[in-house]
């Protein structure tokens, strides 16, 4: 079957196509069609010729299959050290074979590649730190995902996610009107406790442009209010954009590189239109990676940088605490043992480990490290899109065991997770394994302990 009705080589471009895919609950028909989907071998060979660069080919050729990457992979560890979970094997048995065969592969092989690319790797890039040759297997699995997406072999949820970005420029069906109305609603909800609280929209030349995760609009609108409260307390001159407010990119998880470019350019257009001094993104690891680390290259920016300086939320929090814009009431600091989840995407891949520990020094009296930690920490178990793929839920639940064991070893019942995927994975591991923990973003914790200036308190106080 060259093309299915739902499972095909075409990206979602219209709301009608997206609605049709969504109506196939769980992707039942989608996966049935996938079993009959033809591989366009000529197109795959042409893609390899055009995009598989010398660096990628060199990495494939120089890999010594030494296995030193094995223990670095949490999925290898939690799956009884299965040799098929060794990172080098995962790359060589999939991408390596596609390159070797010059795209002459069949449907069964591509479905095996899909399972490997999305259920046996989160692209956390920990293995790259331990490869004696410096081979970046996370990058190669990401490249593999792109080849698979172009041939229609992508998990249903990520085909949906890619479609959401192409139709709505957000990972969920949230329009710009939905976003601005939610901002207004959150101000109204907060006005009794926080008089004069504002969420400025489309303010030009502000010091800060704040971008968010669409899940906050859809499911956690209080997160938007909490960000506004903290900017309010810090006296920041800030704004959000009515267009380009969504910082995340499920297109990156899906391997939809054209969609990645479309999404990040929407954010960059907002920067160029509103001219902020800098952009601050919410507590989300992959959003930071998509917009700040990978985004400039998708957008074709030759300097490798976004249009304005961009920082992660943890960088702003550390700065605000360091400069006294936010002051912590010592009596309200966290007294109980507390640990911290290091997000792969802004800690391992952007060097912000010490930044988050600076924050902990201000807010916690008994901070306990996971082991290992910082850039050596393990993935939460749900990164790279793993959290949301129903087909691989059983494998994802097994993957959560590493983080479960790390948390239990600290003796802490509270985990701070300044990243949406990490927050979700830690929530799910507690539901799955019932270890009796709590988890939190930074924002609500900071609000509970920050000193409120007299002029910002309600009149009755």
Automatic annotation (TrEMBL):
Keywords noted in UniProt: 4Fe-4S, Electron transport, Iron, Iron-sulfur, Metal-binding, Transport
Superkingdom field: Bacteria
Record-level Gene Ontology MF annotations: 4 iron, 4 sulfur cluster binding; metal ion binding; oxidoreductase activity
Secretion signal span: none
Location of the 4Fe-4S ferredoxin-type domain: 60-135
Domain annotation Cysteine-rich: ranges: 338-422
Pfam families for this protein: CCG, Fer4_8
Transmembrane segments: none
InterPro entries: 4Fe4S_Fe-S-bd, 4Fe4S_Fe_S_CS, Cys_rich_dom, Helical_ferredxn, HmcF
Entries under Gene3D superfamilies matching the protein: Alpha-helical ferredoxin
PANTHER family (UniProt xref): FUMARATE REDUCTASE IRON-SULFUR SUBUNIT, HETERODISULFIDE REDUCTASE
Name of the protein in its database record: Uncharacterized protein
């Amino acid at each position: 079957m060259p093309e299915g009705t739902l499972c095909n080589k075409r990206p979602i471009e219209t709301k009608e196509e997206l609605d049709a895919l969504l109506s196939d609950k769980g992707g039942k028909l989608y996966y049935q069609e996938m079993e009959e989907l033809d591989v366009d071998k000529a197109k795959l060979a042409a893609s390899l010729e055009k995009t598989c660069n010398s660096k990628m080919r060199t990495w494939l050729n120089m890999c010594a299959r030494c296995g030193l990457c094995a223990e670095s992979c949490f999925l290898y560890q939690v799956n009884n050290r299965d040799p098929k979970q060794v990172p080098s094997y995962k790359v060589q048995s999939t991408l390596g074979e596609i390159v070797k065969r010059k795209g002459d592969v069949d449907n069964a092989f591509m479905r095996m590649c899909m399972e490997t690319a999305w259920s046996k790797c989160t692209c956390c890039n920990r293995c790259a730190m331990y490869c004696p040759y410096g081979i970046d297997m996370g990058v190669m699995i990401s490249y593999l995902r792109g080849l698979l997406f172009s041939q229609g072999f992508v998990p249903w949820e990520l085909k949906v996610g890619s479609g959401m970005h192409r139709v709505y420029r957000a990972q969920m069906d949230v329009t710009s009107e939905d976003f601005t109305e939610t901002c207004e609603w959150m101000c109204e909800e907060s006005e009794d406790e926080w008089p004069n609280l504002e969420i400025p929209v489309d303010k030009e030349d502000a010091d800060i442009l704040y971008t968010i995760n669409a899940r906050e609009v859809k499911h956690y609108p209080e997160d938007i209010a909490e960000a506004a409260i903290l900017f309010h307390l810090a006296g920041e001159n800030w704004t959000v954009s009515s267009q380009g407010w969504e910082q995340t990119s499920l297109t990156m998880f899906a391997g939809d590189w054209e969609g990645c470019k479309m999404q990040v350019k929407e954010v960059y257009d907002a920067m160029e239109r509103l001219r902020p001094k800098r952009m601050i993104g919410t507590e989300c690891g992959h959003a930071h990676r998509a917009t700040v680390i990978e985004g400039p290259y998708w957008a074709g920016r030759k300097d490798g940088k976004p249009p304005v300086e961009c920082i992660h939320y943890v960088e702003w929090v550390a700065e605000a605490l360091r400069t006294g814009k936010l002051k912590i009431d010592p009596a309200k600091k966290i007294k109980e043992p507390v640990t911290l989840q290091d997000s792969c995407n802004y800690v391992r891949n952007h060097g912000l480990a010490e930044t988050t520990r600076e924050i902990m020094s201000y807010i916690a009296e008994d901070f306990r490290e996971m082991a290992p930690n910082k850039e050596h920490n393990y993935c939460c178990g749900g990164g790279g899109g793993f959290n949301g793929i129903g087909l691989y839920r059983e494998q994802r639940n097994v993957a959560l065991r590493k983080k479960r064991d790390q948390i239990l070893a600290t003796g802490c019942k509270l985990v701070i997770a300044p990243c949406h995927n990490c927050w979700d994975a830690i929530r799910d591991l507690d539901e799955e394994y019932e270890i009796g923990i709590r988890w939190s973003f930074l924002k609500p914790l900071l609000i509970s302990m920050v000193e409120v200036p007299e002029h910002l308190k309600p009149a009755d106080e």
